[in-house]
Each structure stands twice: as structure tokens, then as C-alpha cells.
Amino acid sequence: MKIEIINTGSELLLGTTLNTHGAWMGTELIKHGLRVQRQTTVPDGPAIIEALTESMSRSDVVIVSGGLGPTSDDISREAAAGVLGVELIEDEAALRSLEAFFEKRNRV
Q1: pTM (2 decimals)?
Q2: Separate counts of helices (H) and strands (E) for the chain
Q3: Which residue, 31, 46, 64, 95, has most beta carbons within 10 Å?
Q4: Coil, helix or strand for 32?
Q5: CA nearest neighbour of 71 among 42, 32, 45, 49
Q6: What mean pLDDT, rounded, does the chain reach?
Q7: DSSP characters for 37-78?
């Protein structure tokens, strides 16, 4: 099985954030006899679409880490939906749960 990991986030390429996700996922997958064939790190934005398209053409499993923040350049959800040809939906129960989580912490 060919497994690839795409790490998204400009902060990873700028060196302001250490990419601990990739190492952790590789360690956890190998415990189950699954070996990562390739890891790619791309900045936020359109590069995510290109990375997803390329990885999906050569791999059986593609894992994406990052890109789920509140800024406009975090487009992992939109990129994945577009590449897969599926529509994003908003789950009201999940939204309420998230709102309650942040409300308890006095955050918007």
C-alpha cells in the first residue's frame, strides 16, 4: 500500500513551526505495518490542490495534516472537496459543539 502525507502550512516552510505531525504519523503507521512512501510540505493556498492531485495519482492513501485554521489561506477543506468532486456541508450539531467549546474558553 502506498501512503503519502501532505503537510500544509506556510509556517512549516518558514521554520516558525516545527512539523511534529509528520514524524508522529510515520511512527504510528509503522506500528501497524504501514509505511509512508512520501511526505510533502506545501504552503497554504493553491499549492495544496496541486499536491493533492499529484499524490492521489500515485498513492493508495493520502493523509493531509494542517490547513484547518481560521485564515483565508487555509483551504485544505475546499481543496480536498474540489479534487474529490464533493460538496462541503455544514453540520449544525458539530458547529454548536465547536461554539460551546470556544465559549467555555471565552474565545470567538
Answers
A1: 0.82
A2: 5, 3
A3: 64
A4: coil
A5: 45
A6: 92
A7: EEEEEE-SSTHHHHHHHHHHHH-SEEEEE---SSSTT--HHH
